[in-house]
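User: Hi! Is it possible to get a structure for several chains at once, not just one? Here's what I have:
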Amino acid sequence: MPRLGRGGRQLGSPLWKASVENEVDAEFEFHVEMRTREYIARGMDPSAARAAAVAKFGDIAGVNAECRSIGNQRERKMVTTEYLGELAHDVRFTLRQLLKAPGFTIVAVVTLALGVSATTAIFSAVESVVLRPFPYPRPNELVFAFTHWKFGDGGVSVGDYAEWQRRSNSLAQLSAFQFKGVTIAADGSPDRVTAAYATANVFPMYGVNPQLGRVFTTDEDQPGHDGVVVLSDGFWRRNFAGSAHIVGRTMTMNGRPVTIIGVMPASFDPTDSHEDLWAPIAFTPAQLVFHDEHYLTVVGRLKPGVTMGSAQREMDLVAKQLSAEFPATNKVSGIRIQDFSAAVIGDYRARLLVLLGAVMCVLLIACGNVANLLLARGAARSKELAIRTAIGAGRGRIVRQLLTESLVLAVLATIVGLALAWLCIHVLIGAAPASIPRLAATRLDGVALLFALALAVFSAIVFGLVPAVRAARGDVQGALRDGGRSSIASARDRVRAVLVIAEVSIALTLLVGAGLLIRSAIFLNHVNPGFDVRGLLSMRIALRPASDSANAATEAEQIFTRLATELRARPGVEAAAITSSAPLGGGGGSNGIVPEGKEQSIANAIDARLRMVSPGYISMMRIPILRGRDINEQDARGNVRVMVVSEALANAAWPNQDPIGKRVSCCEGSPDDPRWKTIVGVAADVRTGGPTQEIRPEFYIPIAQAPSDAWRWINRTMTVVVRATSGDAVSLTPTVRAAVKSIDPSLPVYSIATMSDRLAQSLAESRFHLELLVALGGVGLLLAAAGIYSVIAYFVTLRRHEIGVRMALGATAGDVVRLMTWQGLRPVFVGAVLGVIAAVWATRLLRGSLYGVTANDPATFAAVTVVLVIVSLAAILVPARRVASVEPTTALHG
Amino acid sequence: MPATETKDRLHGTLDALVLKTLSWGPRHGYAIARWLEDTTQNAIQVEEGSLYPALYRMERKGWIEAEWGMSELGRKAKFYTLTARGRKQLKAESAEWAEFARAVSTVLAPSS
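Assistant: Yes, the chains can be modeled jointly so their relative placement is included. Here is the combined structure:
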């Protein structure tokens, strides 16, 4: 039994504070009065006696204050002790109660644990990807700077970078990266890794020190002094087993010896590009004044106190100056400053927050179900509660006890949920595409634990408060009289109906989201990539830097031509071709195309993707040729320069005209010598970036007619595509490796994958997003159905009496089932309407993830609503049909 | 700190005396004072300024409990009762005092 309170005192209110003081006053007054009587009895005059008594007492005010203070201390201690005692009692009592009802306990704990674990897992991911600050000092000052074109933001030319650095006042520092594949020779077998050629100020700008050795200096960032590299933690561990004696050793990079001077910590990934090492970029004086070729990634640090807005305004002015000073290259481009975290995290932020919202919806539905269970239990316990109220437990006390029960349930669920969350996170990291930045670092850390705890308290209040308040408000006499059947039951039905409405509306919102993503997925799977992926294998092959620059282009061209010929001759190969960049793979850049007849200026250039291809590439990829012909063997060096354009480029350059025979300038030459290229064919568009990406203009030129600069642009790296006769692309891998080896054993072959895998990979992120939302929608639907089921089942149990009467009066089982069904469906309909309204609003958040379907797609809304109503109907009918088996007499007796 | 020790001893002595007084049954503050004065023939004059804080302190420590009741003259008065913990404390204080007294008397007793 809990200690029954001592009226107003237990509340520790100001009332009681006055009471301590009154007690002291009254006690002292009594003492003085007794002393006065004593003195009077000894024969003193009454007034003198009183004075003497007071005098005898001494410093009454001082003693009074001392006693009050001790009394108040004691009072506070008592209140706390009493509270803790009651809490301990409530917890013990709850645990006993829960043990007595294992079915209820398990269902409630598991339901909540599912909600808590999923929410905590997604929250951990959000924390890791979005919320956790980058591991650099004052990360908010870091910004990306891009060249801004009307078709988008892109890389920066060296000349622009140098000018930006010189002219900007709002940036404390500006550093540049160039990412390149490089060939590392370790143990004889070539290895292809990503190098970031960077300016020396990268390391001080980020404020990160190497974990071993040192970083390169400004002096080493000069041509001729740049034979040093700084390794990433991963590269160091993979290739040198994390040896502490690595500093000072040399290794071969692109055939040239370089000295390893340091190793950066694992957390250092300055642009989230996962590069393996850093080398000085060492701009030449000629590069520093060259404003074409935009390949740099530029990151800067704002001066303290400078805002993004003012930095952008300043860079706009810089861009204007550069446009005026270098019209040939900078006339139509601007500068765009972007927040560092926004650039790295991108739209993952929005996607993850949508997921977090979805998962919290599931948690809310779970809370609704537990509230339902507690209501049912509360009804069963109304007699117990009524007795406790009758013997003096205050309403506050009862509410507190019931909330303690909810809290104990929530804490139990959180413990189970955390274990599940740990599992979820591992599954999540395993299943997620590696391209999501920082996701792999997701941990169940202190912040996540705090979050889970907050969830527990929040959910305890959500699912515990309504039943608690309702139980405490119960009519004591009524409950004692008839065990909580009649009057309370109808009031509870309203609460339960509200729960069903809430659960249904939340579940519908979730399902609409999942439904829209399913429709997007169906759409994406039917998007024509523009070429035939079946039996197609592709890989990248990098040549060493040319030893003899005069013949570099010819030499490279010859090696690749020989490779293509060699491949075609191998058994199992139906066709083979070489291209500077295949769809769904790396490599390649874009160039400005100016059609003949327009002024040869950058303002008239159409930005289009460059593809240098071997003869027959287009037909080999089975890209439909809409007009004209493919590039063939006759398109050799010295012959007429030819070009095949994509449909999008043809439409952009010559709307409503036949492009065959038209001429364009691009990639080389000057206004005086435009090096015209003649259009010989139009190829259908290809989804180079995968089904989710927009189609962009593209053009094909023969490798044999490639401008000599082009080999430098593509870093002497080509993609080889082969089509297997059998259709089984994977089986060609050894064939291709052998063919490459027969040409030159030192050529690194990397990034080998079938086109179907690449296509799947390009959809991996949207599929991952889809799978998560569909899973959450499914769980939400199941939980909501379980909630509806329990409401109806309970309703049936509660109304046995009434049902018996109805049936005794002549209602058939069918009538009763119909009545139950109608009563059960009413809140479902209301919930569905509210859910549709909520979904119309909520699906806007999904817009960025939808393809081929609008956010308010009526078909999806209708289909989801129908599914939900059918599932709800099933959840209602199962318990409602039990009514039919009720014997009128049983019900009346019960 | 010797000063505090002395004060503690004095507190302890007063506490022991009060506890002893209450061991005969519940009493209010005035009655405790009077009982001490009468029993020791005024050899010990308990000052109210020490008695009441001592009572409040012991109540806080849980040695005694207070309750309002009717005094012999029909006035409402606060009566103090010894608790089980108080009784234990009294035993300990008495033993300590006896020890102390024996030690002092051993030193002060005329050598025979």
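The radius of gyration of chain B is 16 Å. Residues 84-108 of chain B form the longest helix (25 residues).

User: Great, thank you!
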